[in-house]
Amino acid sequence: MVDELDWQRISDELGIQGHAVISRLLEPEQCRSLVDLYADQALFRSRVIMSRHGYGKGEYQYFKYPLPELIASLRTSLYPHLAPIANRWNELLKIDVRFPNAHKDFIERCHAAGQLRPTPLLLQYQAGDYNCLHQDLYGEHVFPLQIAILLSQPGRDFTGGEFILTEQRPRMQSRAEVVPLAQGDAVVFAVHHRPAQGTRGIYRVNMRHGVSRLRSGRRHTLGVIFHDAA
Ligand SMILES: O=C(O)CCC(=O)C(=O)O
Ligand SMILES: [Fe+2]
To answer: What is the top-level taxon of the source organism (predicted)?
Structure first.
């Protein structure tokens, strides 16, 4: 399924916009079963109440290893398509790091540096909740692209709660983008920086993501981050 996606389009959109949407990456049934995992404490290594840290309002939990099958397979099947894009970005940004073709090899690099803890997470928001603009950096080793999958159905399960990206360009004002998502849609986006073409060459855009305030209902998301955490 992941191998059949239009990776050329995804790559082009990432290059131009810094994000790309994959429609219907997951079926509604898969989304529902992932939401149901939230109640199973045994699957998670930690739970974060966002308001306690100034991260916003709402909560999330990081999965422990071994990851549920669907999440493990998403991580390993998406990664090889993103690694060439990540390598091109680093080349453009003149960053020396290159990423191996297989996720397990990148994870070995994280583990060797003491980044041992898995980062895939489930997020849960209710009316009034939101996620402040942030970057998911957890140590020296960073894979520059990540994915969030909307598990709830907008309009039916919740209103408000839009996925937001901001771009901070050198010496320029910040630009915001709302990414409309349907249930099961995935957004691929830059974790930290992305290269952009300017009139005088490539420059570095600083990216942040977050979620606007939910007006009603409940919203769940699956976050897939490819580096592990210290
Ligand atoms: O709930 C969202 O859409 C944002 C999730 C998020 O911050 C992440 O997956 O890193
Ligand atoms: Fe995030």
So the answer is: Bacteria
